[in-house]
Amino acid sequence: MAEDADSTLRLPSGATAAQPSPSRSSSPTAVATGSTAHTEASVGASTDGHVLGRGRTVIADRVLERLAVRIALDVPGVVRHASGPPLSGLGDDLPAASAEAAGERLRLRLRVAVRWEEPAHEVAAAVRSTVRDRLGAITGKRVDRVDVAVGALLPSSRITEDRGRRVR
User: Fold this and answer.
1) pLDDT band at 159 (very low <50, low <70, confident <90, very high)
2) The sheet that has 56-59: what strands, in order across it?
3) Domains in the chain, start-ordered, CATH in brackets?
4) Of 24, 113, 137, 152, which has the maximum CB count within 10 A?
């Protein structure tokens, strides 16, 4: 399937669109899994080959979790922390997130590491509101609940500058 410059989805030449079954939506569906997305096009088409309907985007829970972790790291006082031996796979990496999405609604659980010098309850409240607002704005989902637990309090001597995996 190719996408034209005018952003309309067209069927390959010579292909006919299958009629939607009663159990399926009448609009194309884009599905995001990890870092990829694809569109289901088993829907009706007009005589000129255009797919009918607007479609919907489905975001995998793992993608929502990664977004929540990135947003939490932007909150002052939240730091990255890995417990256990390096490269062993043992221990916890903080922040960590767990997401449960149901349609356009979302619930999150976050565990974060906080600088010892920062008031943990204030940092947790800031994480809760920041993640709720930004993740809702990015995904268009309604974030019903964000549970935040402080999994570690770290003194400044144990915190290293986080360079992340960003390219410089």
Assistant:
1) confident
2) 36-40, 29-33, 56-59
3) 1-59 (no CATH), 60-158 (3.30.70.1350)
4) 113
